[in-house]
Amino acid sequence: MNIKNIFWRILFAGVLGTSFAGTFSWGQPKAGEEVNLIMEEMTALDQAFKTIIDGVVLGDMERIKPAMMGVYEARERIERALKAGQKVILPKNQGQIREFIRLDDQFHSDLEDLTRAAETGQRKVVKNYAHRLLDSCVVCHEKFRR
Ligand code: HEC
Fold first, then answer.
1. Atom of ligand 1 nearest to the CA of 38
2. Would the CB of 136 count as within 6 Å of ligand 1?
3. Is the pTM of this model over 0.90?
4. Could you give the CA distance from residue 87 to residue 42 in angstroms, rounded to a whole number?
5. Is the CB of 36 within 6 Å of ligand 1?
6. Does residue 121's CB lie within 6 angstroms of at least one atom of ligand 1?
7. Dihedral through CA 127, CA 129, CA 133, CA 134, nearest 10?
8. Distance in angstroms (rounded) separating the CA atoms of residues 136 and 81
9. pLDDT of residue 33
10. What pLDDT is attached to residue 86?
11. From CA 73, how far away is CA 140, in angstroms rounded?
12. Does CATH place domain 31-144 in 3.40.50.720?
């Protein structure tokens, strides 16, 4: 085997190796690996919350539930990541991840209640939950957002 042949073999193995590694790790980080899914969730949340405010202000409850879908999906990705043992990175107070999860759980439970109230057209209940959620945004950001 000449030098050129060996060179190509090594190069080929290398390219194949990295592309396989890429295929397996793509969107499927291994346990212990770091992922930042919070920003994804926050982008969805930010949009959804604006729709909630519009819904309350305009008295249009029907637009609320459809706006929640992106949030549920982002939230599921975070839950799957945590279950798979992946590390969700917080910009601040990483040591208090349990407190973060507690706040996040409470937040999503309120969000579900709000969505149900919207489905049954209870504008006043939705308005109260919107206030409560806004407070929760601020509480969590003060603690965990840089
Ligand atoms: C349980 C905690 C928690 C709650 C509740 C929460 N956030 Fe966040 N949010 C975060 C964290 C942590 C970050 C920073 C993520 C990062 O930098 O990686 C963030 C970032 C953001 C950002 C991006 C800002 C930037 O740095 O560019 C927006 C927008 C946002 N949140 C909106 C909201 C809104 C609106 C609500 C309430 C309806 C809310 N968040 C509720 C934890 C939370």
1. 15
2. yes
3. no
4. 17
5. yes
6. no
7. 30
8. 23
9. 65
10. 87
11. 20
12. no
Tokens of 38: 């919070």
Is the Cβ atom of 41 under 6 angstroms away from ligand 1? no
**pLDDT for residue 30:** 65
CA distance readout (Å), 88 to 32, 56, 83, 143? 9, 33, 11, 16
Please tell me what DSSP assigns to residue 88. E
In the block, tokens 């519009």 appear at 54
Q: What's the gap in Å between 50 CA and the centre of ligand 1?
A: 14
Indicate which residue's Cα is closest to atom 28 of ligand 1.
Answer: 42
Cα 137 from Cα 38, distance rounded (Å): 13
Tens of pLDDT, residue by residue, the chain (146 residues): 565 665 555 544 554 444 444 344 444 556 666 667 899 999 999 999 999 999 999 999 999 999 999 999 999 998 898 889 888 889 999 999 999 999 999 999 999 999 999 999 999 999 999 999 999 999 999 999 99
* Helix residue ranges, H only, the chain: 3-25, 38-58, 64-83, 97-119, 123-144
- Beta carbons within 10 angstroms of residue 28's beta carbon: 10
Domain residue spans in the chain? 1-28, 31-144
Ligand 1 within 6 A of 101 CB? no
